[in-house]
Specification:
By secondary structure, the chain is an alpha+beta fold. The chain is built from 23 helices and 28 strands. Helices cover about 40% and strands about 20% of the residues. The strands form seven sheets. The chain has a five-stranded antiparallel sheet. A five-stranded antiparallel sheet has the order 13-12-16-15-14. The protein is elongated and about 110 Å long.
Length: about 800
Amino acid sequence: MASLALPTPARNAALVAIASAVAAAAIVLLLVGSWIAAAGFFAAAIIVIGALIAWRLLNPVARDAPRPVDWDLTRTVAEAGTDALAITDRAGRLVCANDAYEALFEGFPTPPGLPLDEAGNAALADAGRSAWRDGTAQVERLNARNVCLSAQIARAGDDADMLVWRFVTAQEHDLAETLAALLTGPTGDRLGGSGIMAALLSPDGRVRTANRVLRARACGDEYDTIEGRDFARFLITDSRGLVRFEREGLEGTPLRVLQIPFLDGDDAPVLVALLDEEENAPALGASASAHVRSLVSMMPFGMALVDRDGRFLQMNDSFLRAAGVNAVAPPLYPGDLVVREDKAAVADAIRKFANGATHSADMAVRLKDHPDEPVALTIAGARGLGDAAVLLSLKDNSEESRLKREVAQATKMQAVGQLAGGVAHDFNNILTAIIGHCDLMLMRHSPGDSDYDDIQQVRTNSNRAASLTRQLLAFSRQQTLRPQILQLPDVVSEVSNLLKRLMGENVRLDMTHGRNLGPVRADPGQLEQVVVNLAVNARDAIVSANARGGGVLTITTRAVPASEVREMASDILPVADYTALIVQDTGTGIPPDVLPKIFEPFFTTKEFGKGTGLGLSTVYGIVKQSGGYIFADSKPGQGATFSMYLPVHSAPAATRPVVIKPTPKPVDLWGTGTILLVEDEDMVRAVAERALTRQGYTVLTAENGEIALEVLEKHGRPDLLISDVVMPQMDGPTMVRHAREKFPDLPILFMSGYAEEQLRKSIDLDNVAFLPKPFSVQELAEAARDVLAAR
């Protein structure tokens, strides 16, 4: 039966109440002299004093209790890192731990009582006592379920009444150190108990570490120093080629020596296992095959055993993960893991090693589930291991493959962007000539003329082609932007009415805007195009998913602080503050094989004639040129989500996008003066010369920068110099620098099919204007007039 004794604070309060009441009753008895009055006063004092003390005990504020710790906040901060963290109080109780701690120890055990070996727990307990005393402590090479750890303990808290336990796992490149720690710890003892002697050797054959049973057999004492000694000197070979320990002599038990590959490279350490040849030798408790299988199962890298018929005998967990094998239904043959083209090569290699080949070989194979990424398969002969004849080693390079795919995709996008930009630039020169000649012909024809409609149709189609080149320039991040400081919700609001019309009646548009959004710096017109393109693609996906077109399109804006980006652990998105625009639909989704290609230009899944394949590539280019990042996530049948992250601009934001309304242009474009026109494309130079001449200017022409300087020497200073930027021999900016040495105030108008932002480094000049190609006759005349008017 459980005890009903009062807790210590209540017991102390009761004693105080009784003592106080007795003292009060004695005083009343002395003053009044009546035992009845003293007894009544004693009872009243008991009640009053006891009530006051009980109230104080039960009320934490009245007890002046310390302010409670916000453990939710503490745990949130702990989740920001990847290390396992735990906090214990003075009484040794676990008060807080993060998810990494739970995953590492499969629950929430209280330090130092963790799933370690006895030596590890003892070392951890000593370190905890040292941390209480000295403030900090550290323990290296702890073994938790074959994971090598280091522990760092620190005393913390306002009253220094807490211990913070931080556990750091060994990195992948420390695999040799992890294996060395395993051999010298309980894992090495378990191997020895099964009759397996193991040592880790450096590339020059010297011992780095060994388990205790090997030390005892090789040195005569398990505590002798074996590190740094030549391993070959511990062994001898008789006339029959049998290997024995040198200390045991030729009468000793013969040994099987196994070299196990687990790291690549000439300077990689080597794991060696030794087994007694005799099955009933005292050091062995079972057959050699069982011991080898036990060793293979404990290895932290992918290994498998294959018999003489080429069938799998065993695959450890690391091998299953690296090969992507279902442990419930494993394959029978190694060839079942690879694509059809590699089956014969793998089977031949295994047959060769099963028939006696003693060296090892590396093969590049393609796994059936990941045919695009070759992996390294190491094959070695395993003679004398019972049924096992071949040893396979497979490196788990899933993370490396993912990074390779991302780098290849980024490189491809960059190369395609450069190609698209070059094509767009050359095409812009052609369109400039076509549009210019159409404008000149329209000046000689009036509406109603038989040729007027044909010329107008040519001009309209040329403008459509020009819009395609602008999309290509957007993808290649070579378009001209006019960035402003703005808020994303304002951009979405500007196009909301257009979006509602585009969505139709059966697609519902939901818009949600977060609070405390940071300002971004971007071109509002280009961002509106991003929103429209994403919305139109989402609408088409929704219509494809439902014949009646029913579905929901959700547009969300929200703040993404740097702490959240850090938790995302993205290799692409740098840690910073962002404002995100998320477009989500309930459409058909994007298949996994299509998802990596959706941002490529001219790639489309729509029917022929229903899409140019430039919508998402334009979105990609605009976002990247604005300094942002965009990601697509989708599962077939569950819709798609496009997430755009724009970095927060540090300057104060305007409440709404600043829309600069163009000032009305005068109708009269007639001008006077001399213009020097420099253009290497004959067709562009010809149409520009005719257009300017018709406006009343005297036009001098040159096909490159060197000839332009000669014209300046001959004719003197012109009123305006119009030049292409990129030209052979001498480019436009270089020619202008030479010209301004003689005419410092010469007005300049540059024209180019490339974006102004892309040419900004080369156009490092003051007081210059820029006209993007393709342009019409009127746009050229307006640009020339504006530059001359600004003198």
